[in-house]
Design a protein that fits this description.
- The chain is of the alpha+beta class.
- About 20% of the residues lie in helices and about 40% in strands.
- It contains six helices and twelve strands.
- Strand 5 and strand 6 form a beta hairpin.
- Helix 1 packs antiparallel against helix 3.
- It is globular, with a radius of gyration of 20 Å.
């Protein structure tokens, strides 16, 4: 497909190299160079449904992630996860989903770089340009044969040209899904030297007391146990 030259402020090869560098920024989150540090991410997300009769839902989310633990907190949910347990908590519904952590999450994090490389080989660059504010913006499209597998069609990434850190990501999902699009705005992205208290305890002890009962702040919550391996 031929695109108007206005869609590109540089050559296709230069643009593809720039996208590879952008992916490398993300891959560094699992780099050995960051061992012992805590990654912090603060972002807002809006989910646009396919049916215009349904409301757009939005949330503001904070993520803290160490080598072995993850804590995610939004206005309507929180996620507490370590190498063994995952607790997805919905205060509004007074419900906790308890599940195992898939083995691949712990052992195959380094496959992100290979996945990004393979994905980039399959994508078509629809546009690559500089915005009026001086940021870079690229729009990528998956071939139709991969729409079903990846559940998405296009994604748009806006980022700072110097640091390569994204500031906005727009994901367009394939037709037939309840969700049409997600818009993600990244407010802060950094590594912390000190591990927050919420990551220092294992996930189980943050939800259960010493008597294997739900902690006081979760009393009355419905616990849905989806574990396959029943490890305390």
């Amino acid at each position: 497909m031929l695109l108007p030259l206005a869609a590109f402020s540089q050559t296709q090869d230069e643009c593809r190299l720039e996208i590879e560098n952008l992916y490398r920024q993300v891959d560094q989150l699992n780099s050995p160079d960051q061992s012992g540090k805590v990654f912090y991410l603060h972002y807002s997300v809006s989910a646009i449904p396919s049916d215009p009769k349904h409301q757009v839902t939005s949330d503001e989310v904070e993520l803290w992630q160490s080598e072995s633990s993850r804590y995610l907190k939004g206005k309507h949910f929180s996620l507490i996860q370590d190498e063994i347990h995952s607790f997805f908590i919905l205060p509004g519904k007074e419900t906790i989903f308890w599940s195992d952590v898939p083995e691949q999450v712990n052992k195959n994090e380094n496959t992100a770089e290979q996945w990004h490389s393979a994905l980039l080989r399959e994508t078509e660059i629809l546009s690559c340009e500089t915005t009026p504010s001086g940021q870079r913006k690229v729009v990528l499209e998956l071939p139709e044969k991969l729409h079903q597998m990846a559940n998405l069609r296009t994604w748009e990434i806006t980022y700072e040209p110097g640091s390569g850190r994204p500031s906005k990501i727009v994901i367009q999902y394939r037709e037939g899904l309840a969700l049409a699009k997600q818009e993600i705005y990244i407010h802060d992205w950094k590594f912390l030297k000190d591990e927050p208290l919420l990551l220092s305890q294992n996930a189980y002890k943050q939800v259960f007391s010493n008597k294997d009962q739900l902690k006081t702040n979760y009393q009355g919550y419905r616990l849905i146990d989806d574990r396959i391996i029943s490890t305390p």
